[in-house]
Amino acid sequence: MENTEISKNKPYIRFALKIIAAAAFLATGAIILMYLIKANRYYASGNDIWGHLFKADLMYQSIKSGDFYPLYTDFWYNGIQPFRYWAPFPYYLMAGLQYISGGNVLNAYYLLAGLSFFIGGMGWLLWGISSRRIILCTFIGTIWFFMPENFLVYFCEGNLPRMVIAILLPYLVYFIWRFVEKGRNTSLFPIIILMCISTLSHVMIAAMTGIGAFIFLAVYSIYTKNVLRPVYTIAGMLLSFALCGIWLFPALKGGLVGMDPAASAEVMKSLSSPLSVSLNPFNRMTGIVDTFYFGISAAIVSVIGIFLSNRKEKAGFYTTVIILLATTASAIPFLSKLPLSQILWMRRLTPVAYALFFCSLIEWKKCKRYFMLILALILLIDCIPSFSISRYYTQLSTKTDNELVIAKAITKQRVALMDLSSNGSYPSWELCEGDNPAKYTYGWAWQGAATSSNIVMLNTALEGGYFDYMFDRCLELGNDTVIVKKDLLKASGKNYSDLLKAAGNSQYRLYQETKQTYIFHRELSGSFGLISNYKGLAIGSSSTQISLCYPEFANGNSNNIEDYTLEELLKYKVIYLSDFKYHNREAAENIVRRLSRNGVKVVIDMNRIPVDKVTNRMTFLEVTAQSLSFENSYPALSYKGREVIPENFVQAYSTWNTVYLDNIKKPTGNFEYLDQELVFLGTNEDENIVFMGLNILYHAMQAGDTEVMNIISDLLRLEQNAVPARKPVDIGITRKSNKIIIDTPVEGINTTIAYQDNFISDDNIKNDNNLLAVTKKHTEIKLVYPYLKQGILTSFLGLIGLIALYFYIIRKKKGVL
């Protein structure tokens, strides 16, 4: 009797032993991987990883001190909200691993490698248990970490959030399949949980995961005629985003949804690759290792699967091919026209394609064993280059260690490293960690910084050789130390004496020269703010360029001229308007007239003015901009009766589309065009209001045209490269939990601290060019969680929606529980 019972249980025992052996195999692989990485010191690999490690350590140290969600750190970007735009879950995970590692964040990185391999692999083993295909799924679980793009994310990008999502994908796809194909209603709950974790790891990748699932389920519906359950799945995934509203709502305010479409299109273009590259396996062996490689094996097997598999299994194979084609440049014109195109960075969909591809491979039950073995061998061969970790190891720290150590030793408030991020994310870690940490004007992932536009302008100044502007704005951002890379000085077209002179104009001196950098320092005592006196104000999205040549121009806080009080504008001698906005043209014109009557000169770039909604013409103060175009150069210009011969246009703008001025009563600049005398500069009844055409400022800057720039200097009555008067003032800054206390000797100080929208104060604080200005000698600022009520409401509505969806599903048709 007992023997019969044992005989009946033998298949179950063998199956259980297979599961244990497979789990042990994956665990052994994880241990070997961690050992190899640590033994060979392949730590912190990738361009991004050091920035992520800084945030992970920040989270760990904050939790240790009792702050479980740090709202603010002053180490990057003059102060930043570290987990508002960067989802917090990966950093909580790393903080937990760091705790297990005894507080060592690098050991936590080793543990993450093992965790990625083992937990990701166990997701595929879960498929094996369900499908009774233990060997195949153990194989997939083993190579999952080494799939080309997954491996690239870990060792070349070093993108911590993407690593975490790669761990989740096998589970997410598994539960989607169980819900849609197997009819398991309870699988909706893990789908929701996994989507929430993905959203709280990387909202863009979570959204793209939803897009990949949509493609997969759309193909699945076409072949199976099963539409309702795919619709329920997508609805549940969408509502999962709402459930995360308490974090997501403030993250999207000024985050992804505010991304400039043109900038997004450029990113999409940079992340695309022709098939000759993305399917070329030899690039991984002989080329640059971080070149995008989708995987020719996945493409070949997908095409085979499309032709030979059964109807429902085709969905993953089709999805893989569709996503592959979407990573090419030819797909960008189509993708850029779709809703939310700013998140369609299709290369980042590659791990999702892998997961859906393996879903179809596992479910291809009628594939013969020997043929499946051949397909597995194709996949394994394609992953072999990933086993050569040494080729993929990316570490960028060694070039800047000496400079950063010197800078940390001398910096009393803040340091700016002018390297155009050529040293990767390592300085963001090295400067701000360890003994004697220094605050840093820069950091890694600048898009979430309140001072992002300041950072862009600093980099532009470095590239263009506008060193007077660069050093002055470094001082405005509170830097007593500035490091400049030597090779970037050469690339700017300027020389060492230009750099040294500009530094001296802002009272920086050369502290030390190293092999690769110049280190400048201005001796200031402790924390300081500034009292500044600008002569000009630039208003409009295209107006900021003028301050590169004329640093005495401040950049306005708003592009809309009606957002300024007359009192604010009367502080300046000259106002420059370029691509500015208004609500009401008559009101805007009245502001300009009042400024003029009070002695303020207003220069209006007519190339960049709002189009009148009624006439559909570019008209302001009765002057109209008329379009015309030049090839290669302007004609000879006449300015105040003097002939000026401009330089040729730069090659990139050999066709120059611009405007001339119509209805100018007192022209001061004109030119001949097709036997007509046209005006590009002049005034009407008021000589303080100057209209400017031909986009001459931009040409002068691009072409280095000194003759044309002299025209602009004359009409502005300002000296090129002159810096504004600035008086440093010692200030006291005290941090108490989520509170900042500022004490100043006088009122009206720009503190050089980045202004945040979660600063709450009973005192009158202001945003001064993205920096915090205080109007009282003693100011107390409370740091609050931004948009808390709106976030809670969004999460509540998401929860109600998910509950309603689930009850609708089980009422529609009783599910299998």
Automatic annotation (TrEMBL):
Q: Enumerate the UniProt keywords alphabetically.
A: Membrane, Transmembrane, Transmembrane helix
What are the TM regions of this chain, as residue ranges?
A: 12-37, 108-127, 133-156, 163-180, 192-219, 231-249, 291-308, 315-336, 348-364, 371-393, 791-810
The residue ranges of the Membrane protein 6-pyruvoyl-tetrahydropterin synthase-related domain are 83-699
Kindly give the InterPro entries that the UniProt entry links to this protein. Membrane_prot_PTPS-rel_domain
Give one Pfam family.
PTPS_related
Keyword Transmembrane included in the entry's annotation:
yes
Origin superkingdom: Bacteria
Protein name per its UniProtKB record: Putative membrane protein
Name the source organism: Ruminiclostridium sufflavum DSM 19573
